[in-house]
Model the fold of this input.
Amino acid sequence: MGCADPSWHLMPLAWNSWLAGFGLTLAFELPLVLGLLSRVEPRLSRRVALCLIANLLTHPLVWFFYPQLPLPYLVRLTLSELWAFGAEAWFYAGFVAGLGVSRAILTSLVANAVSFGLGLIVVTLWGKWLF
Done:
């Protein structure tokens, strides 16, 4: 992307919006993931890192890729949320020893459902100031 592209000047705004959304996602998901993983991962620093990495793997696609798909809004939204849930469940199952698939699914489901719900509330109430 360069000066010939008329949208080049919008990139800082897009990244700032993404950072705000990513920060909100972590604010909502981190406490939940920390609690849900505490029985199988006693190290707080590792639980924080796991949540951060899981969200770094999924959030950019949710924010930048899925909204660009030429599909109806609700289809894009559903696909992006299924992606986040599935990829994070897979990540937790693969990288948290002793967690198990069902607990990984529960962890991802709870974190993503709460994040989605609270995110809708925050965006509805304060979205014009945040993004």
User: Anything to note?
Assistant: The two ends are 22 Å apart (CA to CA). Residues 14-130 form one domain.
